[in-house]
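Re: beginner question about structure tokens

> Can someone show what the tokenized structure looks like for a real chain? I only ever see the sequence side.

Sure, here's an example I had lying around. Input first:
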Amino acid sequence: MNRTRYIIICLWVLLLPVKATDTDSAYVNRHSLWRHTVCEALQNPALMTQAYLKPFTELTLQGDYRHQSDAFRVEEGKGFLLPEVAVQSYIRLTPSSVVWGEAAYSNGKFFGKEYNNVADFQLLYPDVVADSLGGDTHRERYLFSGGYAIAHQEWMLGGELKFRAEQEYRTYDPRMRSVVSDLTLKAGAARRVGHYRLGLSAEGNIYRQTADVDFYGEQNGMGELQMTGLGTSYVRFSGSNRDIFYEGKGGALALDLQPEGACGWMAHVQHAIHQYERISDEYNSLPLTTLYRQQTTLMMGWKQQTATDEKALLLHASYDKRANDEHVVGTASGQDYPILTDLTMYHLHRWDVAASALYGRGNWHFQLKAGWLSQREKYEYVERKMEYARVYGELTAQWLKRVGDHLRLNVFAKGGYAANVSHAIVMPYANMSASIKDYVNHNYKYQKASYAQAQAGVRADYQPQGWPVGCFGRVATAWQFCSEHAHEANVHLAVGIVF
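And the corresponding structure tokens:
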């Protein structure tokens, strides 16, 4: 009860200072596909001084549902149901300073997870605790963020704080429970140089997760595997070692270039480095593995906005590298376990390169995107490999229209196809258990597949003249069809109010 009261108070505080000032131009500014030309730059808090034409606060009650006929990735399960309440606010304090914030609470459920008994799988893979039983899990998440930016003469300065608290658990054997705290601090500066804004931002992150698995049934001898990638596990510390925690830290630097006016070149370059230690709580805080992750993102392009139309050409590229050290531990001396050496056994390399063209005229916007995606995983000894590559194309259409004096409509549709162009797997099948063999082959089957996707949605905003508050509703659906005769269905529903 106290926790719920605290959330309501935080949401209400964000609502208090906002006035109803959303015009048609401000609505287009917030919801148009054209916003894709600035979204990377707005990761620098200093550039938030001109992020929106008008201040606003939006309170949303929403729900997301996903169902897969067969799990595309075993560790992530067959779907989820995630209801959420959230508030987002952007307030102009003075002509040269702004504040913004977000608060959200969700409490939902994931279905059919296997070989994964920790939260944040995408963040920590392959260093997860796992078993072949798995099952549904409950997830509760709190998210708070806030920032401040100010412009003075040719300079802009800003800072932002984000905090996420989360727990994920299961109420039957194997009873996993993970508790997460994730704090990110970001600072940025930007300067006007000719007709451009040149910005630099830096961020730091501190991460922690405690994870344990319990068995309450009569036959509670099930062991947990300390996974190390591609079906391998740290055999010495698997089994009854069920209490671990993760400690992570990292940072990122980003450089941005944006035109001051409606036409010009733009660029965004970011490089991030993080590491996550998996530590055994049962062996005197012994580090078992360390995951090193590097991410590089590049966006560059050109845009032009006139009184009649908008057009932009963009190039996107991202690279994600993971390397996992296994710490070789010696014989215990008292309560101390000496680390003899480190072996870098697991590597992952992921590339995503794409080009897109964006065109808008009147109430319509269109975006065409084509790209190439490649992922390679390798475990050094005994050698294991899994890799695939796809080429993909997407077409998105959006229609923004004011209907009468009180109603605004935002309708979009998207279609795309990702075709597999290469794939390969190398596994020591003769030395693998039947369950691990099935697990690895299942994931590979869907990695080497081709996918067709279709999305559609509509948002309606209603605010009669003189009303200080507007209301909106949103519904969207997305479908994926896999060449392995499986499909995925997504449904999104939302209602809310806008100040």
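Each token stands for a local structural state, so reading them left to right follows the chain. Helices lie at 2-15, 24-31, 121-124, 434-447.
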